[in-house]
């Protein structure tokens, strides 16, 4: 099976003069506009709210203003951010791997090449879940259902062409079926996808571990497997442990508007680097089940070029483009 992973935090060991952050940091922004090209409750929104929580408590930012515009894996909101925030200071967008795939799958005329990459922040594996009342008891049961009746095994996830869709396509291929046979139900945000799974409107769901963790803990969802290299939840096996040689990570990061001045980009880099260095940020990542994938500046730009090429290869292989 195709293996697609992200660069680890160790690969991002860059020497930056502003890396060390004091306990109470210098304020960088009196107000910061955070644009999330997805609905509330999903992974991008979660990262944005985490930046708010830690950044405000540390004194890096006075106030935050959020704007959520969901749809089509970020390709609905992205043009709005590009048009309305071009060249403006004090504004960031949260996005990630899902948008890379969605831009390709939806043949969007704009993409991440049209904004200013600041830093990759986190990555997390995907997780496959079913409602607690489901007759599917384990990963084998889910794979058997996919193999025997892919059209009748509806799976909720994020936007078409994103990481959730790719993971389902790779699992179908593993079972000797085509990704085109999938009954994939795309949602603009984690909240609606959760509602569909809990209401048994679909047979299963795929998303990032953090998006379903509370529902799993509460016993409302049953976790079947995760797509990480190692376990994210102690009682949930990885796909590798279950005999499927597949590792897939979902990275998320921060972007500035297009057309900003070099000094504006440097300010944003300084802000996210100081945020990342805070102990509170590391504690929050542990609670959320996120892996540290910090990669700032030009290194992030280079990563994006490689990631887009790799994503295109995966989408072609599983028949999604």
TrEMBL record:
Keywords: Signal. SUPFAM superfamilies: Periplasmic binding protein-like II. InterPro entries: BUG (IPR005064), Bug_dom1 (IPR042100). Residues 1-20 form the signal peptide. CDD domains: PBP2_Bug_TTT. Belongs to the UPF0065 (bug) family. This is C4-dicarboxylate ABC transporter substrate-binding protein. It comes from Teichococcus deserti.
């Amino acid at each position: 099976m195709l293996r697609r992973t992200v660069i680890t935090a160790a690969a991002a060991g860059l020497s930056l003069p502003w890396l060390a952050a004091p306990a109470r940091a210098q304020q960088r922004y009196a107000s910061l506009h955070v644009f999330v090209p997805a609905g509330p409750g999903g992974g991008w929104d979660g990262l944005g709210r985490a930046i708010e929580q830690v950044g405000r408590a540390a004194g890096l930012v006075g106030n935050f203003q959020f704007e959520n515009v969901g749809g089509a894996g970020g390709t609905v909101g992205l043009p709005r951010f590009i048009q309305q925030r071009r060249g403006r200071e004090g504004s960031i967008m949260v996005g990630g791997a899902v948008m890379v795939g969605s831009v390709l799958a939806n043949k969007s005329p704009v993409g991440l090449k049209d904004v200013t990459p600041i830093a990759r922040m986190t990555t997390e594996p995907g997780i496959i879940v079913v409602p607690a009342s489901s007759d599917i008891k384990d990963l084998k049961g889910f794979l058997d259902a996919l193999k025997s009746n892919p059209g009748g095994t509806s799976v909720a996830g994020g936007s078409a062409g994103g990481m959730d869709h790719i993971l389902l396509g790779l699992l179908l291929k593993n079972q000797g079926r085509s990704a085109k046979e999938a009954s994939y139900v795309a949602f603009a945000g984690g909240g609606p996808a959760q509602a569909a799974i809990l209401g048994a409107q679909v047979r299963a769901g795929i998303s990032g571990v953090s998006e379903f963790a509370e529902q799993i803990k509460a016993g409302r969802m049953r976790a079947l497997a995760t797509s990480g290299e190692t376990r994210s939840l102690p009682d949930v096996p990885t796909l590798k442990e279950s005999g499927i040689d597949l590792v897939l990570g979902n990275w998320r990061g921060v972007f500035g508007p297009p057309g900003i001045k070099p000094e504006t980009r440097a300010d944003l880099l300084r802000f996210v680097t100081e945020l990342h260095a805070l102990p509170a940020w590391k504690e929050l990542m542990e609670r959320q089940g996120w892996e540290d994938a910090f990669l700032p500046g030009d290194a992030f730009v280079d990563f994006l070029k490689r990631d887009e090429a790799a994503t295109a290869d995966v989408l072609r292989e599983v028949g999604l483009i």
